[in-house]
Amino acid sequence: MEFLSILKHYFNINLFIIAGQTVTLGQILLIPILVILGVWVTRKAVSTISSRLIAKGVQADLVHLVKRILYVLAIVMLAITTLDFLDVPITAFAFLSGAIAIGVGFGAQNIINNFISGWILMWERPIRIGDFLEVDNAKGRVEAINTRSTRIRRVDGVHLLIPNSKLLENTVTNWTLIDQRSRTSVRVGVAYGSDCNLVRDLITQAVNEQDDVLHNPEPKVIFDDFGDNSLAFEVYFWINASIEGELRSIRSNIRFRINDLFNENKVVISFPQRDVHLDGSLTLIQPNIK
């Protein structure tokens, strides 16, 4: 009992006064316990809600938005609870918070801009987790939309951190905003004298044999030009591909198949060549070799 009395005496020692309310040593020591308990409960609750949303098939970006909102609400509630535990009214910080806000506003404009942009991205969802983006000269898939920046994994595996404000203020190509359909093309040149109708049919066959090529809209073969060294053909087709690597792979398969069909049907793929015409006579002199 004597030990408890001594402990209670020390816990009741007054340290300072805020807005007319005395703060004791015991209250200060209990604040970390309150914060740790609040953080633990918040993480458990957010994890449980997120797991249930994912199990119901909710999109990853919506789950991410819900988690952000829950964390913000938890922080606000924890701060209010802590002040109430200290018997400190929130109005006591009105002037101080206003002064801090003005100072931070001037010194951290970019950070605040990116913070607000991050919330706009998560709320309006012009960019979602899993989308394939093209920003400046970089292409990659969105892995996370954070408060300050968005993390993108480039096609070569390198991760990029792009400020959220840049995604709102600049032109961004979102390949998968509406769906994953993309149109691409393969170009090939054949030698002069080739049967153009046969070439068209062979190219169409090569494209239609690919499982990844969509048949609606149908592939379209265009006789593009009478080139310097070839008859130029180009086929346009639609595919379900969300990253550039898939486009290159499908185009490569089509080129392999076109080459095989051309070889089977004796169609020659052209190559650069020049015909030289000489005016006048040309005399060849063979030197005497002794």
Automatic annotation (TrEMBL):
Residues of the Mechanosensitive ion channel MscS C-terminal domain: 186-268
Natural source organism: Glaciecola nitratireducens (strain JCM 12485 / KCTC 12276 / FR1064)
Principal subcellular localization: membrane
Domain Mechanosensitive ion channel transmembrane helices 2/3 per the UniProt entry, residue ranges: 69-109
GO CC term (a single one): plasma membrane
Entry membrane topology: Multi-pass membrane protein
Keyword tRNA processing: no
Name of protein: Mechanosensitive ion channel family protein
Keyword Transmembrane: yes
Domain Mechanosensitive ion channel MscS positions: 110-176
Family: Belongs to the MscS (TC 1.A.23) family.
TM region positions: 15-42, 69-86, 92-112
Pfam families to which the protein is assigned, alphabetical: MS_channel_1st (PF21088), MS_channel_2nd (PF00924), MS_channel_3rd (PF21082)
One GO MF term attached to the UniProt entry: mechanosensitive monoatomic ion channel activity
Keywords attached to this entry: Cell membrane, Membrane, Transmembrane, Transmembrane helix
Gene3D superfamilies in the record: 1.10.287.1260, 2.30.30.60, 3.30.70.100
Cellular location(s): Cell membrane
